[in-house]
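To whoever is on call:

I kicked off a structure prediction for a single chain this morning and the downstream step that reads the tokens threw a length-mismatch warning. I double-checked the sequence; it's 98 residues and nothing unusual in it as far as I can see. Pasting both halves so you can look.
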Amino acid sequence: MPGRRPTRPGRELARTHHASLMAVEGVVNGHYQAWRRGDPTPVGASLDVMYARWLALAEGERLVLEWPVSRLPETASRTARPRAGRRARPRVEARASA
């Protein structure tokens, strides 16, 4: 979401999977560059459609995309960690004065 700061769990997730994210970025960029050169790529038709939608936009119009989000399968490392949330405040007991 524009202007929204990354959360601590989100930053941790990106840090944990940094190598995989970089590998995927390479694959995506490879398909994009192939499409730009006119070389065949499995996603070429989809990129053609999206580019046509982009060109058809009038001044000030927005191109909005929505797609389903798939949950990642649970792993031992994800299920072993405690859930993020508010920490309980230390309990302070008042003592009666004598």
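Update from on-call: the warning came from a stale cache, not from the record. Cleared it. Sanity check on the structure: The chain has a mean pLDDT of 82.
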